[in-house]
Write a structure and sequence with these properties.
With 869 residues, this protein is α+β, with helices and mostly antiparallel strands. It has 26 helices and 31 strands. It is 40% helix and 21% strand. A hairpin with a 4-residue loop joins strand 20 and strand 21. The longest helix has 34 residues. It is globular. It binds tryptophan (TRP) and zinc ion. Zinc ion binds next to helix 3.
Amino acid sequence: MKTDLPQSFRRLEYRPPNYTFGQVELDIALDPARTIVKSRLQVLPGKSYETGAPLVLQGQELEFVSLRINGDAHRHFELTPETLSIYSLPNDGKDPFVVEIICICVPEKNTSLMGLYVSNGNFFTQCEAEGFRKITYFLDRPDVMAKFRVTLQARETECPVLLANGNLLSTEKLPNGWHSAVWEDPFPKPSYLFALVAGKLDCIEETITTGSGARKLLQIWVEPHDLKKTRHAMDSLIASIRWDERRYGLELDLERFMIVAVSDFNMGAMENKGLNIFNTKYVLAQPETATDIDFANIESVVAHEYFHNWTGNRVTCQDWFQLSLKEGLTVFRDQEFSADQMGTQSGRAVKRIEDVRTLRQLQFPEDAGPMAHPIRPDEYQEINNFYTVTVYEKGAEVVRMYQTLLGVEGFRKGMDLYFKRHDGQAVTCDDFLAAMADANHCDLTQFKNWYSQAGTPRIKVEERYDAPQNQYHLTLSQSIAPSPSQSEKQPFHIPLKVRLLTPADDQVEQLLELKAEKQTWTFDNINERPVLSLNRNFSAPIRLDFSQSEADLLALFSSDDDAFNRWESGQKLAMQMILENRLPDAELIAAYRDILLDPELDPAFKELALTLPAETYLYEQCTSVDPQQIFKSRRAFRRALASSLRLEWAALYQQMQTPDGFKPDAISAGKRALKNLALSMLLDADALIWAPMAVNQYQNADNMTDRYAALAGLVIHGVNAAKECLEDFYQRFAGDALVLDKWFALQSSRPPVDGAEQTLTDVYRLREHVAFKMNNPNRVRSVIHAFCMNNPASFHQADGSGYAFWAEAVLALDPINPQVAARLARALDRWRLFAQPYQGKMHAYLEEVAANKTLSADVREVITKALGN
Ligand code: TRP
Ligand code: ZN
C-alpha cells in the first residue's frame, strides 16, 4: 500500500537518542556552487543505546562523497533522501568511535534560506530548527549537544571575513589565494545553534567589562556601506547585557559576542551561540531611514537573541515540542527588558498594551482556528509551522503568570533554581515548572493545563451588590471551547488581579486565583456599589464575558488607576459601538477629549487610547463576519472621532512637535506617535484642508517616522499629492532595501478609498516592479503578506479576487521558500468564521491550492488543517 500521507511527529513518542556526540570537528571549504563539508564526529552510546542499533544520521539535499569509521573506509551504510544509516559499527557501537563524512552542498541554489546559503555574495547559515542537516549528515536534534571546532576555508578576495561560533583560535594563508580560520566553541551545543558567516563584511566593535570583571569583545557585522547604521543595535546589546546581569544575575559567558546582519532571512533573528544572525530589518537604523517602531523593534530583538544565551542555549530544549520553554520565556524576558527601558510607570503600561494588542490581534485568532495548539504542541508535521504567536506570545503570557502568582522575587528564585539544576542540559517545560514550584514550595500541578490545552479561556463574570449587607459578590466561571483534537478541557489555574473602584477609594488591588470551574468571592464593608476593574494589567490571557454597563466602562476609561484597564475599557466601548454600527456618543467623545487634554498622561498612552481595535480583532467577536460591513462601521466611527475632536487634533499637532533634532527615546517617540495620529485624524476629518500640512511634513521631515507617517496619511486618504510624494520617496531611497520595503508595504496595505481603484490592482503592478524579488522574504512580505494579512478590507472582496491572488502567490512562493509560503498560506485560516459569499470563495481557493500535488510539507500542513481533513 502506498501512503503519501504527511508524516506526523508526536510529543509522547519522544525517545532519547541511542547515540550522541562528544567532539565534533568540521572542515568547510566554501564555494557557492560546491561547498565541501568534512566532518569528524566522535560518537558515543546515547541514553537509550541498544546493542547493535545502527547510527541513523539526518541529511537533506546533500551529495554524499565518503564515509570512514575509525580511519577506515566503511561500506555498510544506506542512503535515503533524508537519512544516512550506518551499520556494522565497531564493537556494536558500545565504545566511542570516530565517523568521518565528506559531503557537498550548493549554497547558491539554496533559496529556502535554511542550512548554508548565499545572500548578496556572502555566506550565511540558518540551522534552527532542522537546517543543520542541509550542511552535513548529523544527529540533528536538540538533545544531542556537542563541542564544535570549525575550520573555514575560502578565497580571500571573495571572503576576507570568516566567522563561526565561539572563540577564534587561528587564521592561516593557504595556496591559490585561499585562507582559513579555526573557531572553537567551548560550550557543548545542539546543532541548531551552529552558525558560520563568510564574506565581505565590516564591523563596529566595543569592549566592555562585565560584572565579574571580565573583558568582552562585542561586534556588529554588516555590509560596509551599512556601518553607519549600527550604533543603535550596539547600544541595545550593551543595555541588554547590563539588564540581564542586574535583573537575573546572568553574565555573558564568551570572550566575544557577534551580531551579523543579512538581508535574506526567513524570520527576525537567530540566537546562534556567540554569533547571532539577524535580519537587517532588526539591526540597521538611522533617524533618516528607520521609524520609532523600527528603533524599538531593534532594541527588543537584540535583547531577545542575547537573552537566549541563557534561556535557550545554556539551557536548551529536549525536543521541538518544548519550543515555548525557550521562546515563551525569552519573549517574557525581552518584554520586561523593554518595559524597564521605557523609564516610567506609564511607559511600562504602554509596552504592556502594545504586547496585549499583538496577542489579541494575532494569537487569539490562532487559538480559535484550525491551527490551534497548546503552547506545548502534541503533534506537528512541519516544525517550522510551530514558530507561532501561540508558542511565543501566549508562551510569554504563561511565564508572566508564574511571576504574577509567585511575585517578582519568587519568580527570580525559580529562575535561579532552574539554572542551578539544568545548566548545560536539554530539558522540558515540566522541568521549568518544577523549578518554579520547588523554589517557592508551592503546588503548581493545575498550572500544567496551560501547557496542554489550546484555546483562549472565557471567563463569565456575574456581580451582585448587596446594599443592606454592604457586601459585593463576584462570581467567575471559566470555560474553554473545544479545539482540533481536544474536546474535553480541564479548568485552568488563572491569576486575576482585581480592584473594586469605590467612591471612597478605599479598596486595594487583590489577586484572585480562579481554579475551579466556578467560584464566588465576597467583599465586605463595601458601602456603595463599586465599579469592577478585573484582569488588571491583563494578568491572564483570557476573554472576559462581562456585560459591564457603558456607564461603568466610561467610569473606568476616565479614572481607573490601572493604566492597562483604563485603555481596555475604552477599547471595549469602541468595540461594542462599532459592532452595533453606532457612532461615538457625546459622553464617549467627552471622555476621549479628557484623555487627550490630561497633562498627567503620556502622549504614547493617549495615542493608544485613541486608536481603535483592529478589524481582525473585531472579526473575532462575531459569529459570521461581514468584513466590508465591519470596515465601514469602523471607518465611520473613526471619522466621527476625527471630526468631533478636530480642534483638539489640530492643537495636539502643534503641541507634540519635537523640534530639537531626532532622539529615539520613548518620550519623544510617544510625542511623534500622537502628533502623527493627530495628522491622520485631521486628514480623516477633511483630507483637502489638511493635505498641504501633510505634504509639508513629508517634505521637511528630518526623520523617517515623520516622513513615513505623512506619506502614509496621503496615501491612505487618497490625496492627489500622494502619487508625487510616493515617486519622490522611491527616488530618494532607491538604494536602501529596507526603506523600499516600506514603500512597497505602504501601497499594498492601503485600505479601500472611496472612488479610487482597488489596492489589488496596485499589488499586481508592484509584483511586476523591477525592485520586486520573489526570493527576498522581506520584499515578499512587504508586498504579498502585507496585502493578504494586513489589509483585510482590500483582501476580503466579495468576488474572491483577493483570494485568487493569494492562491497564486502561495503556489508561486512554495518552490522557492516553503517557510515563507506557509506563513502566507495561513491568511485563510479563519475562513469558517466568514459570512457568504466570502466563506465559500475562500473554501474554493483553499481546495485549489490543496489540489496541487507538489506542495511542500510546510504548506501542505497548513492547508490540510485549514480544510479540516
Ligand atoms: N529562535 C529564533 C528566535 O526566536 C527563531 C528563528 C530564527 C527561526 N530563524 C528561524 C525559526 C528560522 C525557524 C526558522 O529568536
Ligand atoms: Zn527566540
